[in-house]
Amino acid sequence: MSVQPVGHDGGFELVFRDEFDKPTLNLDRWTTCFWWDDNGCTNLASNELEWYLPSNVHIEDGALILTARRESAIGFEGREFPYTSGIVTTGRYYAEDPGETRFEATEGYFEMRAKLPSGQGLWPAFWMLPSSLHDKPEIDIMELLGHRPDMLELHFQYEDGAGNPSNIGRHLRTNDLTLDWHVFAAEWSSEQIVWYLDGVEMWRYTDQRFIPDVPMYLLINLAVGGDWPGDPDETTEFPATMKVDYVRAWVRSEG
């Protein structure tokens, strides 16, 4: 039998995978910045403190490593950022045409096996954005705030019928998710979005009025600071790493 999502024994066709078993990142599958890459990037909307750099992304022992460091870097409009970190996406850069999106889907099952870091101000995430380069809708398959490693964050962000931004989600108490490897996943269809942890359903969203029907791409990043996690403090250990064993995507098999 072909590789199936954790917790499922059939019914899916694999359409994307990276096992990170090559010595370097496959740039035909991944970018190393948001689409607004300019010798690095960050998310100004969240007031994050990191500047993402390709040098903070590497592969080691069959895993993708995103490393956050306490070091300054000059970024947007000459601003100094006190941390650097890593991000990968299957999207495209602003200078590329839509056909250069590395991987996108309009429905599917998306899975990542990863080991997450803990620490005040650290914010690892696995998520999806529209290939149109708009910021909504957004499917947050997994987020974790480093100061509460036993709380899994699952969110869906969208615009309501009046065009107002909305954010619905769940904060689920778990065991400490930074102590071992875990599998984070979501299945998105026209009927619902279902979130999984280690193959066990954790939450589902079923309001079909707002479920996306546009192509979306994958993102994995290790943010530092920002409005939600807060700043790192003296207890936060650097360098901090987010390790990813694999990323896979499936569609439902026909018949």
The oligomerization state is: single chain
Structural class by SSE content: mainly beta
Domain tally: 1
Let me know the average pLDDT.
Answer: 97
Given the C-alpha coordinates, what overall shape results?
A: globular
Residues in helix, %:
under 10%
Question: What fraction of the residues are assigned to beta strands by DSSP?
Answer: 35-45%
- The CATH topology is what? Jelly Rolls
Order of helices and strands: EEEEEEEEEEEEEEEEEE
Low-confidence stretches: none
How would you explain this protein's 3D organization?
There is one protein chain. The chain is mostly beta strands. It has a single domain, classed as Jelly Rolls (Sandwich). 0% of the residues lie in helices and 44% in strands. The strands form 4 sheets. Strands 1, 3, 4, 9, 14, 15, 16 and 18 form an 8-stranded antiparallel sheet that branches. A 6-stranded antiparallel sheet has the order 8-17-10-11-12-13, with no helix packed on it. A two-stranded parallel sheet has the order 2-7. The relative contact order is 0.26. The model has no long low-confidence stretch (mean pLDDT 97).
Main attributes?
Jelly Rolls; 6-stranded antiparallel β-sheet; 8-stranded antiparallel β-sheet; 255 residues; mainly beta; 18 strands; 0% helix
